[in-house]
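Re-running Ribulose-phosphate 3-epimerase to confirm reproducibility after the cluster update. Everything else is unchanged from the original entry.
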Amino acid sequence: MVKIAPSILSADFVNLERDIKKVSSADYLHVDVMDGCFVPNLTIGIPVVKSIRQCTDMFLDVHLMIDKPVRYIEDFAKAGADLLSVHLEADHPTQIAQALKVMGECGVKKAVALRPITSANAILPYIEELDMVLVMTVEPGFGGQSFMESQLETIRQVRAIIEKYHPTCELEVDGGIAPKTAPLVVEAGANVLVAGSAVYGKEDIPAAIAALRV
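Result of re-run:
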């Protein structure tokens, strides 16, 4: 079954609790954390994740677009994240492995994320311990970008690796997801779809979520 993870990056931050409640029919709540270093944008940090946790029981899918993420894994876990994804490009492989180790010690689900420039094979050293792989179909850093159709092949390759080494691992796609692109990424092997403006940009948000469940 396809799962939908609305991204609060497209929500109204003045009315964040209200906008979180509007997406309660979704499966996950996607929280984009950007540090202005790994990506050229700043969003939210640990205090906001803690506040979100206090106003919802939704599964918090926290996407860390930050440099050297191992430094903050424990803090985000304590703030209430259910799953943390770290970018393979954000640190040396030994430190990515350490970040995943700390996730396990903190009891949160483990994920790695791939920028469009990164090969699917980069997940091989970690795949057997992962709960999710996140494939970006835009360059990370800003919402509202156009879907990169070239990433469909990466999604297929990641799905093949998952099926071979760890079939229960989920495959999430983030970037330019809308009713037209959702069937493409699902056909390629994704089962979790992150959507920002395709959900929060619509008048009928539950209907927008339902439209993505291809």
